[in-house]
Amino acid sequence: MTLPLYQKIRTEIEERIQSGELAPGAKVPTEAELQSAHGVSRSVAQRALNDLAQAGLVVRHKRLGTHVAEGARQVNLLRSVGPKVGSAGIPGRLSVVSAEVVSANAAEVELPGIEGDEPVVQLVRVRHDLDDTPVVVEVAAVPFQLSPQLLNENLETFAVLEHFAAIGVSVARSRMYFDALLLENTHAELLGIDPGVAILRRRRHMWQPNGQIAESTAYYLRPGFIDLYLEYTDQG
């Protein structure tokens, strides 16, 4: 699936922010500059900047322009949990550790309402930051019957919500859990840190309109990598 132009522009700017190229307080390219650089309309450039502002990464002021927000190395969790909001937008490459079909009771994540012998597609990946440091271990599981061809996708760029949209699977509800735990050996090795370190794990469940589980994912976060927050902006 091809990303809309405004999302490509947003991602490019976000990567510059997360890498430190655009530091807090730095001026972000104007709508006119983005139009010229990317050959897009004003509305596309405006939407990219507005999306960054809604994510808390930039601050926009009339006559003063757009600047990188203080504490921009943050993630608004509403972008992770909301089925209609989009991704959290953490830049960096993904490496695939394993991708296989297993029974639900053998999966690393819990899949509520799924029989233990039902097949699921389990995908284990590691997110690296722009310095190529491993920062998140992601363990995702999707019922096999929802997407029998999932393993044929490009798993290094695979995004579950985009995939569901492409194959016509609707997501009606999403919930996120947070656990503080001590990192065990397998995930510690993938993150390149010592086991036994206290970390935050966040778990996401997404359900279809019929109440059946669509996806279950656990994220093991490298300590000190990023700040997580919740922010709602009234668009009315």
Give an account of the 3D structure.
With 236 residues, this protein is of the alpha+beta class. It has 6 helices and 10 strands; from the N terminus they run H-H-H-E-E-E-H-E-E-E-H-E-H-E-E-E. The chain has helices at residues 5-19, 31-38, 42-54, 78-81, 160-167, 185-191, and strands spanning 58-61, 65-68, 74-76, 94-103, 119-128, 134-143, 173-182, 198-207, 213-221, 227-229. Strand 5 and strand 6 (134-143) form a beta hairpin. Helix 1 crosses helix 3 (42-54) and helix 2 (31-38) packs across helix 3 (42-54). The model is unreliable at 82-88 (pLDDT under 50). InterPro entries: Bact_HTH_transcr_reg, Chorismate_lyase_/UTRA_dom_sf, Tscrpt_reg_HTH_GntR, UTRA, WH-like_DNA-bd_sf, WH_DNA-bd_sf. Keywords: DNA-binding, Transcription, Transcription regulation.
Task: Give a brief rundown of this model.
The protein is of the alpha+beta class. It is built from six helices and ten strands; from the N terminus they run αααβββαβββαβαβββ. The strands form three sheets. It has a six-stranded antiparallel β-sheet with strand order 4-5-6-9-8-7. Strands 1-2 form a two-stranded antiparallel sheet.
Q: What's the structural blueprint in terms of helices and strands?
A:
Elements: H1 5-19, H2 31-38, H3 42-54, E1 58-61, E2 65-68, E3 74-76, H4 78-81, E4 94-103, E5 119-128, E6 134-143, H5 160-167, E7 173-182, H6 185-191, E8 198-207, E9 213-221, E10 227-229
Parallel strand pairs: 3-10
Antiparallel strand pairs: 1-2, 4-5, 5-6, 6-9, 7-8, 8-9
Helix pairs in contact: 1-3, 2-3
